[in-house]
Design a protein that fits this description.
Elements lengths: L16 H12 L4 H8 L1 E6 L4 E3 L2 E10 L4 E9 L8 E4 L9 H11 L4 E4 L19 H18 L8 E7 L1 H12 L6 E8 L9 H25 L2 H6 L8 H15 L2 H6 L8 E6 L7 H7 L6 E6 L9 H20 L6 H15 L1
Parallel strand pairs: 5-6, 5-7, 7-8, 8-9, 9-10
Antiparallel strand pairs: 1-3, 2-3, 3-4, 4-6
Helix pairs in contact: 2-4, 4-5, 11-12
């Protein structure tokens, strides 16, 4: 297994007034920008297997460790019929692996012609000597590590991947981390040109007295909703979906340590740092009380290119095939509008086109 020490540091562009606001807000989150960058540096990068040939193209699997002491697995997907050089960048939901549901999504996007960079969550890679974190887990730190690996993957595949542009997708924890990537992409010399995030949670901190009653009802309805999701899956999907969960004690310990960041309201703090010109789609489910849809609407009220779509379902509806179908449609719609004029592509154009694509494919 090869060990590498990253040798170059990213120099961010000069800070304008909006960038200073971002910096000050991140400082208030106790995440100094230089610390975010330095902790995300790769101290180890291992190729876990030779490229795996699949029907959609090729998968490469990696494990990496950051200077902050966090270990991640990652998958890079190179489509057989590539139609864009802007890779989709995604990271995992809470307690999930890069297999099962997440690999299913990677393959679907590859089938549509998109290269994909998928990063697991903390503890998803187990190097021979299990490393220990030197800092607490935060969403901003997760976003930084994901962007840092994306930069490495793009450098390695520079003949296939755009050097800077990214499309971010994510579900639950992955969606919350995606908000961080939207906010700090410039720190890693990258640009998130479109983000499609599903069921981000807790834009405000969980308060037991305020939220307990809602969550008790949620605990009753969630299994019913998940049963409906299972009814929509094929037998092949059902067979492979158990691999979605990562039961390894090392991974579980890290995911439990991630809990305070998820419930703290940090996702909402990061969302307030998202520049107003960013193109973003947020899917919330009406039965998912953790999504706190009204709070996202307040945060993004002045963002003309952000659309928040409420759908029927609960949190685990993220696994419904229809949810992925809409993500694929919006991804295709973005590329169509972006190809016409990258400077004039708007959320309204992208989202309206996506609905046309869904209707014609039904």
């Amino acid at each position: 297994m090869a060990t590498v020490q990253d040798s170059h540091e990213v120099c961010p562009p000069p800070l304008d007034e909006q960038s200073l606001d971002v910096e000050l807000a991140l400082l208030s989150l106790e995440e100094r920008l230089d610390t975010l960058q330095s902790n995300a540096q790769l101290t180890r990068l291992d190729t876990l297997q030779e490229p795996e040939q699949i029907r959609e193209g090729y998968l490469e699997r990696y494990g990496f460790v950051t200077a902050g002491g966090y270990a991640y697995d990652a998958v890079v997907g190179m489509p057989r019929d590539q139609r864009t050089d802007i890779p989709v960048l995604a990271t995992a939901a809470w307690f999930t692996s890069s297999r099962g549901h997440n690999e299913h999504a990677v393959r679907h996007l590859m089938r549509a012609g998109s290269p994909v960079i998928f990063v697991g969550s903390e503890g998803s890679y187990r190097p021979g000597n299990l490393v220990k974190p030197t800092t607490g887990i935060t969403l901003a730190g997760s976003a930084a590590a994901t962007l840092r690996f994306a930069q490495e993957a793009a450098d390695q595949h520079h003949y296939l991947f755009d050097a800077q542009k990214r499309i971010v997708i994510g579900e639950s924890r992955g969606a919350m981390t995606g908000l961080g990537m939207l906010s700090i992409d410039r720190l890693f010399d990258q640009e998130v040109v479109f983000a499609d995030i599903t069921a981000p949670c807790f834009p405000e901190a969980f308060a037991p007295i305020k939220h307990s009653r809602e969550f008790l009802g949620y605990a009753v309805t969630e299994p019913i909703s998940f049963a409906k999701v299972l009814a929509h899956l094929t037998l092949k999907q059902v067979k492979h979906y158990p691999a979605t969960l990562d039961p390894h004690p090392y991974a579980l310990a890290h995911q439990l340590a991630m809990g305070p960041a998820l419930f703290s309201g940090e996702a909402g703090d990061l969302a307030r740092l998202v520049p107003k010109n960013k193109l973003v789609h947020i899917t919330c489910f009406n039965g998912d009380v953790a999504s706190m849809q009204s709070e996202w609407q307040r945060i993004f009220v002045d963002h003309s290119n952000v659309r928040i779509t409420p759908l029927e379902g609960s949190h685990l509806t993220i696994a419904d095939p229809e949810t992925l179908a809409y993500i694929e449609a919006r991804n295709q719609a973005f590329h169509e509008e972006y190809a016409k004029d990258s400077e004039l592509a708007t959320g309204q154009q992208v989202f309206d086109r996506a609905h046309v694509l869904i209707r014609t494919s039904a």
